Amino acid sequence: MLLKTAAESFASSGVDVPIREIAERAGVGVGTLYRHFPTRSDLVVAVFHKEVEECVETLSALAASYAPGEALGRWVATYVDFIAARRGLAAAMNSGDSALEGLPAYFQRQLSPAIQDLLDAAAAENEIRAGVKAAELLHAVAMLCVPPSCGEPTDPKRMVGLFMDGLRYCSGRNVGDKA
């Protein structure tokens, strides 16, 4: 209950949401929250680990239910939502807080093997171009979700959709099709 409430609070208000507000939303006292998570960083890490586990579960479920290219596209759409709901997490990870420094590596370790399997399967089916590495996909999608520092704002889902179209186009599957 605490992790779910904290995740919802982080998604709506960012990782700097007051601990008191999280406790109130969870219906517990601040002391109870601190007893389970002595620091804000402990809470952020616990929420992030839980959400990464859910990302892996979603990826596995999609891989079992759809063709590799379709599963990949659906998971990437989920990943875009995952990134959007992590307001302030990137800044927190770069804040110098040693408790948060390991989060990007944890994310990569947990997700990369399953994503790589899906990328390889999609490439073997000629649904996407071959040779794409999991780290490249994760980084590219994450960067496409960052609002530009100048110019007009972009829609991350549209940008990622264009990127995914490029992966499919380069597979040769759609090149020259007149259907």
UniProtKB/TrEMBL annotation:
Keywords: DNA-binding, Transcription, Transcription regulation
Transcription is among the record's keywords: yes
Origin: domain of life: Bacteria
Coiled-coil segments on the chain, per record: none
DNA-binding stretch(es), residue numbering of this chain: 18-37
Domain HTH tetR-type: residue ranges: 1-55
Database matches in Pfam families: TetR_C_43, TetR_N
Gene3D superfamilies for this protein: Tetracycline Repressor, domain 2
GO function term, MF aspect, one: transcription cis-regulatory region binding
PANTHER family: HTH-TYPE TRANSCRIPTIONAL REGULATOR BETI, HTH-TYPE TRANSCRIPTIONAL REGULATOR RUTR
Protein name: TetR/AcrR family transcriptional regulator
The species this protein was found in: Rhizobium chutanense
